[in-house]
Amino acid sequence: MNTKLVAFMLLILCFSSNALKAGATDEQTIEKGIKFNHSKWNEILDLAAKNQKLIFMDCYTSWCGPCKIMAKKVFTDPEVGEFFNQNFINVKMDMEKEPGVSLKSTFAVNAYPTLLIIDEHSNIIHKCVGALQKDEFLKFAKEALNGTATLSHYHEKYKKEGVANKEFVLQYLLKLEAANEKEQLAEVINRYSDDLKKEDLLEKEYWNLLKKYVHSISNNAFQIVLKHQQEFINAFGQKEVEDKIYFTFLREGNQLCDKKENGDFLLNSEKKQRFLNHLKKNKVKNKEAIVAYSEISTARTLKDWKAYIHSISKYLEKGLIDNGPMSLYNYALPVEAAVKDSDLRLKAAKWCEMGMKIEGLHKAYLDAFQKLKNQLSQSKK
């Protein structure tokens, strides 16, 4: 037989053998990891009832990076697979395809990945938002089976006992934070802080609680800090206290619009006036910058692009808002996507020109600015 032909056949056999081994390895990895059930949702619920098991649901999207990391690194782990396959009916749900789209509102999924433990009646037993490492993921699952450490258990306990037990409140806040349940977290922290006095807040534990969870200027604890700033500065330092006050007002100013049922937003004039009154009468650093960012954020939320572009141009000229490359690029980017008016687009293109003039600008930024400027200089159909 021709020597070259023999060599070629051997090479093919070698590749085929390696491919088979690779395939076998992939199958073994999948076999050792979590086995996901791809049945219809009502069948999943029936299966959970029949087997008296809870359902683990991985709520993901195709573009979610942390979702992919968990799928590759955690779900394929043999120990994870053994535990979940034994104790749960496991489901992966793309939340941008049916039935994920319908279930998204049912389970209030608004960030990815969202990890849910559900019973056969579609009640949420436990919940966590964000990627978890192996040990964290197993702990999350074991809490669901334990019952007393689940989010649902904490919800029920809160309904019965309120905020009388400090240790419970602290643990409940951690659960709510992990589940990204912002509205409930705000309710709990506001209710808990209603009974706190200045003397309590001057203790490090309570101050840390306020720093981490209080994000509303109307909160009782925050109002105490505003009225007694110097005492808190003496206790915790000027920068720490002034930063907390500044960023709380900044956040409040970015949330002056209410979302309507149809998904559109409407400016809450009463909330805006209350925000401006508090800002005016209290000692807050960089007040003008806070007002500037609030104006920009409100215009963008309302999709008032003329006001948005006018505000940014005005406040850049006054030096009240950040003019770094990342900020300039992010100011201009939504204009390219949403605005058709050529004059408005050209005004946003000037922000790209400003960015390109920054000394020592990295080439990647320079290229990105040039590309965005070119796009903004063109008419949008």
TrEMBL record:
<keyword id="KW-0732">Signal</keyword>
<feature type="domain" description="Thioredoxin">
    <location>
        <begin position="20"/>
        <end position="146"/>
    </location>
</feature>
<dbReference type="InterPro" id="IPR013766">
    <property type="entry name" value="Thioredoxin_domain"/>
</dbReference>
<dbReference type="InterPro" id="IPR017937">
    <property type="entry name" value="Thioredoxin_CS"/>
</dbReference>
<dbReference type="InterPro" id="IPR004879">
    <property type="entry name" value="Ssp411-like_TRX"/>
</dbReference>
<keyword id="KW-0676">Redox-active center</keyword>
<dbReference type="InterPro" id="IPR036249">
    <property type="entry name" value="Thioredoxin-like_sf"/>
</dbReference>
<dbReference type="InterPro" id="IPR024705">
    <property type="entry name" value="Ssp411"/>
</dbReference>
<dbReference type="Pfam" id="PF03190">
    <property type="entry name" value="Thioredox_DsbH"/>
</dbReference>
<feature type="signal peptide">
    <location>
        <begin position="1"/>
        <end position="21"/>
    </location>
</feature>
<protein>
    <submittedName>
        <fullName>DUF255 domain-containing protein</fullName>
    </submittedName>
</protein>
